[in-house]
Design goal:
Radius of gyration: 18 Å
Distance between the termini: 34 Å
Number of helices: 11
Strand order of the largest sheet: 3-2-1-4-5
Structural class: alpha/beta
Helix content: 40-55%
Number of strands: 5
Strand content: 15-25%
């Protein structure tokens, strides 16, 4: 069995496409993934850009991701690239992970609209939300953004935020650490202590002020 950590970047379907938007609000414009073996060591990576069918890339998405209309102009559309991704995975003997549930929700919508023959329900059954498992493990009621979770590990974020392959690789590093529970808690305990509301005063609380609003069990 392999473990596949995936990240998607999306672009909104333009508002004039009212019939499309009844079923599909966004389209995938980048797929990034890393493949891990049974020991959660990286054994492969996948990245592609995807040309959207129902909208040009918005300025907001370009500012967020760096993806422009020029980058995707000569790229394949979703059906071809998703099939390439699944072929790279190598079949159903896998578990698939992402940081939050937004990626599986996107694939459920986009596959239903563009690739209805694909068994997305089976994919969903093998999907694990790393963010939820991370938050549950350290007792967070709120969802912690990927860059803050990586920072909490005392690790520099590798690559650029909101690029699919970099986000997938960083999420995979968290997944690997979570397999060793004693090591995970040794790493995270100082952060857990600092994030408790009554103890926040400096360090990560000062570095990321928005973390002060997080709630713990």
């Amino acid at each position: 069995m392999v473990h596949v950590v995936i990240d998607l970047e999306m672009n909104p379907v333009q508002r004039s496409m009212k019939e499309v938007r009844k079923l599909l609000l966004e389209e995938v414009i980048e797929i990034g993934a890393v493949k891990l073996d049974d020991n959660y060591q990286q054994i492969g990576e996948f990245q592609c850009y995807v040309r959207p069918e129902f909208s040009s890339i918005s300025k907001h998405i370009t500012n967020l991701t760096g993806i422009t209309n020029e980058i995707v102009a000569d790229k394949n559309m979703f059906v071809e690239e998703f099939e390439n991704f699944f072929n790279w995975v190598g079949g159903w003997d896998m578990k698939i992970y992402s940081w939050s549930s937004s990626d599986i929700n996107q694939l459920k919508s986009e596959c239903a609209y563009k690739l209805p023959q694909f068994d997305v329900r089976r994919l969903e059954e093998q999907w694990i939300d790393i963010q939820k498992e991370f938050d549950d493990r350290i007792g967070l009621h709120n969802s912690l953004a990927l860059k803050y979770a990586v920072g909490a590990m005392n690790r520099n974020f590798e690559g650029t935020h909101h690029t699919a392959l970099a986000d997938a690789a960083n999420a995979a590093a968290i997944l690997a650490l979570m397999q060793d529970e004693p090591a995970f808690f040794r790493t995270m305990q100082p952060v857990i202590d600092l994030l408790k509301p009554q103890e926040i005063s400096q360090s990560i609380g000062d570095l990321y002020p928005e973390l002060k609003n997080l709630k713990f069990d």
